[in-house]
Amino acid sequence: MKTEPASGEQATPAGAQGAEIAHAPPAADVLEKNPEVLKLEKPRFPDNAYALGLVGQVVVQVQVGPDGRPMKSKILKSTNESLNDSVVDAVMKSTYVPGQAASGPVASWLTIPFRFETTR
Question: Quick check: 20 pLDDT over 60?
């Protein structure tokens, strides 16, 4: 049977005697509007990949800062690694509209797919 602590006593969770109870950190800003591409630089088709007639797709994620500038990027998927550097260069030179939260512009992630094809 459970009993309530007597007046003036403090309840402690089972097994937590002497331990501090950690509180969850405040929730991160919830996006009300996702970031968008303002001006997307076109990735350069690497000469060696083009000469070989390689095709492929690269999906990159870019973190857009509150000022609309790219902060960092990461490749999520790539069918040909020789295309990755060109894509990263392009997204890091591009400009964006930042994501919006109730508090104003916030850093947030945007996913962008690129397709490389040769027309021969």
Answer: no
